[in-house]
Amino acid sequence: MIQKIIKNEEGVSLVEVLGALVILSIILIGFFTMFTQTSSMQNVTEDDIKATNLMNIVINDVKDLSLSTDDIGNYNSFDNLPSVQSDGTLTSNDQFYVEIMITEEPQSTNLLKATIKLFNENDQQLTKTYAYVEVDNND
After folding, report:
1. Which one, 3, 49, 59, 60, has least CB within 10 Å?
2. Helix (H, G, I), strand (E, B), or coil: what is residue 48?
């Protein structure tokens, strides 16, 4: 019986080879698609993390501000924020800039709400958050 198998020298037909190539191609296309998707998602996640970390730095500076009700509206006094340059770009990464809007908090007379938006160099808003700042009552 073993001699019959060894003497059987028919080989592999062209249809079998083509079938194997089609199956292998389908599997490889699936893997390559997965790798490219993973790579693009990593870049998006990296940008989100960078924006979040930069926003946290700005929030901490905004919370340390001495604000009064006279500051309500667009906040442009970036000289008081160590993390932001006078034109609104961030000192640690000048590819990003912030816009800050100060509004009254209706539930409290001693708090102001600072809405902070972070933009990239293409004017695309990356993130938006807010922080509460105590009103300086020494006016």
Report:
1. 3
2. helix
> Span 92-106, mean pLDDT?
89
Amino acid occupying residue 83: S
For 69, residues 6+ apart whose C-beta sits below 8 A from its C-beta are 104, 112, 135
- 115-134 mean pLDDT: 90
**125, 134 Cβ separation under 8 angstroms:** no
- 135 in Cβ contact with 110 (< 8 Å): yes
Q: CA 65, 66, 67: angle at the middle one, nearest 5?
A: 105
Give tens-digit pLDDT for 18-57: 999 999 999 999 888 888 888 777 777 777 888 889 899 9
Place of tokens 């490219």: 36
Strands of 22-108, DSSP E: 73-75, 96-104
